[in-house]
Design brief:
The protein is of the alpha/beta class. It has ten helices and nine strands. The chain has two domains: 1-17 and 67-110 and 160-252, TPP-binding domain (Rossmann fold); 19-64 and 112-154, 2-Layer Sandwich (SIR2/SIRT2 'Small Domain'), CATH 3.30.1600.10. It is elongated. The structure holds zinc ion (ZN). Residues 118, 120-121, 123, 143, 145-146, 148 line the site of zinc ion.
Length: 259
């Protein structure tokens, strides 16, 4: 069984029409007013920020986005005998799961935009339901359990990553035989450092990204071509190589097993 870890960032979803918000060049880093909508302290302190946040969520293009060929190729690799795939994603769009990856195999470092959570009692419910309330006229819908402030189940600026999710991601980075960083600039830690940790623990590190990353030097292979075509081709090649290696092992094991 070959364990393939995939670390995905905003670049994998741009073909699905979702812009990069959070990355070093992302919209939120360039626009301080937009950044306030996703900064925990502003969000909690100011009802007007929350009303604007709910309008932004309601109008988000994420809800219409479809998984693209790269998301689908990852889910397809996971269905191949001999492969176990784990996705560690910086994205909150849920497109890996929509492409067919089982939810338990996807670690969402920054949470998910498809759920909402109460900041007081931590009850979770669906974003769809919350947006229906916004649509019906509630500009800042409160928690239906305790009346607390609701937010999307994403990690806002000023919030720390879930240590449990991060611990699981670290374990996968250490255990994976292949670690593919796709569509991420590998500049935002701790997600970025997973690539270095994987390489230090013996994984074949492959970087698929339009721009250079700080980990290119540690990578066995760096791919600059567009992700929508490059990733499916790369995963197909990985399948072929693994099948060949498996056949070679069987051939060499044959005579020994007769001794
Ligand atoms: Zn609550």
């Amino acid at each position: 069984m070959t364990l393939v870890a995939i670390l995905s960032g905003a670049g994998i979803s741009t073909d699905s029409g979702i812009p990069d918000y959070r990355g070093p060049q992302g919209l939120w880093r360039r626009d301080p007013e937009a950044a306030k909508l996703v900064t925990y302290d502003y969000y909690m302190a100011d009802p007007e920020i929350r009303r604007r946040s709910w309008r932004m969520r309601r109008d988000s293009t994420t809800w219409r986005a479809e998984p693209n060929a790269a998301h689908r190729a990852i889910a397809e690799l996971d269905r191949q005998p001999g492969f176990a795939v784990r996705v560690i994603t910086q994205n909150v769009d849920g497109l890996h799961q929509l492409a067919g990856m089982p939810g338990r195999k996807v670690l969402e470092l920054h949470g998910t935009a498809r759920s909402v959570t109460c900041t007081r009692c931590h009850a979770r419910s669906s974003m769809e339901e919350a947006l229906a309330r916004v649509e019906a006229g509630e500009e800042d819908p409160p928690c239906q359990v305790c009346g607390g402030i609701l937010k999307s189940a994403t990690v806002m600026f000023g919030q720390r990553l879930d240590p449990v999710v991060l611990g699981q991601a670290l374990a996968i980075a250490k255990a994976g035989e292949v670690f593919i960083a796709v569509g991420t600039s590998l500049q935002v830690h701790p997600a970025a450092s997973l690539a270095g940790i994987a390489a230090e623990h013996g994984a074949r590190l492959i970087v698929v990204n339009a721009e250079p990353t700080p980990y290119d030097g540690q990578a066995e292979e760096v791919v600059r071509e567009p992700i929508g075509t490059a990733l499916p081709a790369l995963l197909k090649r990985l399948r072929a190589e693994t099948a060949e290696a498996g056949a070679a092992n069987e051939a060499s094991a044959g005579p020994r097993s007769e001794q």
